[in-house]
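Lab meeting, item 3. Inverse folding demo.
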C-alpha cells in the first residue's frame, strides 16, 4: 500500500489517547490512527489485532488449564 505523510493538529487529550493505545498494543501511532480511520470510513484495511494484557493473561490461563487437563488424561511416563 502506498502511503502519504500528512500532518495536522489534535487536542492534547486525543493525542495522548492515541499514544496510550499505541503503547498498550505495541503498535505505532500510525497503525493506531490508520486502523481507527479505516474503521470509521469503512475502508477495506486489515485492522491490526490489538490485545490487552488482560486478554493475554486469560489466554495463558486457558492454555495452562488445557495442558494440565491433557496431562491428567495422558500422563507422560
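The presenter then showed the designed sequence:
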Amino acid at each position: 500500500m502506498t502511503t502519504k505523510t500528512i500532518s495536522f493538529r489534535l487536542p492534547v487529550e486525543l493525542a495522548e489517547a492515541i499514544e496510550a493505545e499505541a503503547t498498550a498494543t505495541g503498535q505505532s501511532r500510525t497503525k493506531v490512527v490508520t486502523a481507527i480511520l479505516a474503521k470509521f470510513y469503512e475502508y477495506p484495511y486489515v485492522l491490526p489485532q490489538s490485545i490487552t494484557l488482560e486478554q493475554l493473561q486469560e489466554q495463558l490461563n486457558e492454555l495452562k488449564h488445557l495442558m494440565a487437563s491433557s496431562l491428567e488424561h495422558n500422563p507422560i511416563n
